[in-house]
Amino acid sequence: MDKFFIIGSKSLNGNVSISGSKNAALPILFMSILTEEKIKIRNIPNLTDVNIALELLEYLGAKIKHQKILYIDPSSINNFSPPYDLIKKIRASIWILAPLLTRFGKAKIFFPGGCQIGKRPIDLHIKGLIKLGATINLEKNCINASIKGRFQGKYILMKKNSVGATITIMSAAALAQGITVIDNAAQEPEIIDIANFLNTLGANIIGAGSNKIFITGVLKLKGGTHQIIPDRIETGTFLVAAAVSQGKIICHNTEPKHLKSVLVKLTEAGANINIGKNWIKLDMRGKRPKSLNIHTAPYPGFPTDMQSQFALLNTISKGVGNITETIFENRFNYVSELINMGAKIKIKKNTIVCYGIPILSSANVFCTDLRASATLVLAGCISKGVTIVNKTQHLIRGYELFHKKLNKLGADITMI
Ligand code: EPZ
């Protein structure tokens, strides 16, 4: 059951409800290790990556109750060395390290996994924790870390913009002694959500969402309730689904202000966009999109997680569009699959040049990573004939009920 059988030439129209953000939910789950009091989290998306994170928390000893609302009781956490087979499955497991060090003064975790879109180093995480006072030995495939007493607040200038390392350092600084400043911090909305969650528990973090975050360490965190922000990349993916199929869509339960750079590009492509407090409407009015030139960049720039979806838009647009990937060094694996479907794309170092054609042809294609998987499914929905998308296990890591939501919009996708 890891293939999709997709009948193409569909126009996607209607309403879709956006789920909670995967990239906010994952770190927030691991931040629960920082407290011994009960936590309630709303709008947690039902994803395999989230389920792996919950398995990891349970392995460490936390009590979990996951109905519509997620209840975590972290008081019974008593383990600081999670198993290789779980850690290896997700990139997010790196965010266990700092909370375990804060709680136990030691931690042993294997190097994290994640999408094969680049080397995915963790040097900025490690350097940040050492600066705050941790002792870290990198062994063959695991990290052996310890700290005497509390982390010590410091000024940290990030040599590179990193979402993950900003989160790691913020979580270590929350209970450190003294003040930590993260300069050249990542500014993604997920970082704001994590800071809001930690502040709900009693942390003292200001400036999240800007490039300078100030964290005044506190002695202890309490429990609390939090609602995860909507997933901006799921939202962008559904907006592109309507744009490439010349349809009309309304995305509900989302946050338009998190997608400014994406909405600017969709408008440039010829889409008619309307937004409300928590919804975005896109209407292509039956037109083929215009080609776009895009450079991915750290937030608030154009998100790398939307790169492959916009490459699909360019392949069926009028004109020639260039997309340059500046964040990850290996995020064009889907290009060969789109070329199998008739796309005219040339790769020149970290830029792809897309020569727009009116329609793609169906093919037997293979997923390589999360966002590329969504792109290939959308390509199958709009191409002539029947497309088989293989290795869809990548997809369910990051999109809740993706093919069911697409079928409600007029797609014809069967899991086989
Ligand atoms: C997070 O990955 C997201 N993943 C990614 O989403 C997202 O694409 C990325 O941020 C950038 O926005 C999660 O939140 C689980 P980075 P992360 O640290 O933290 C380099 C998706 O599809 N770097 O901002 O791994 C790194 O190699 C995923 O949902 C170092 O050099 O990204 C990259 O070139 C894909 N050393 C750049 O920085 C480090 O220690 C940005 O990486 C860490 C990162």
UniProtKB/TrEMBL annotation:
The active site of this protein is located at 115 (proton donor)
Q: Which UniProt keywords apply?
A: Cell cycle, Cell division, Cell shape, Cell wall biogenesis/degradation, Cytoplasm, Peptidoglycan synthesis, Pyruvate, Transferase
Domain of life, per the record?
Bacteria
The residues listed in the UniProt record as binding UDP-N-acetyl-alpha-D-glucosamine, with positions renumbered to this chain, are 91, 120-124, 305, 327
What's the EC number here?
A: 2.5.1.7
Instruction: Read off the CDD domains from this record.
Output: UdpNAET
Q: 2-(S-cysteinyl)pyruvic acid O-phosphothioketal occurs at which residues?
A: 115
Q: In which pathway does it act?
A: Cell wall biogenesis; peptidoglycan biosynthesis
> What do the Gene Ontology cellular component annotations say?
cytoplasm
Q: What does this protein do?
A: Cell wall formation. Adds enolpyruvyl to UDP-N-acetylglucosamine.
Protein name listed in UniProt? UDP-N-acetylglucosamine 1-carboxyvinyltransferase
Organism the protein comes from: Buchnera aphidicola
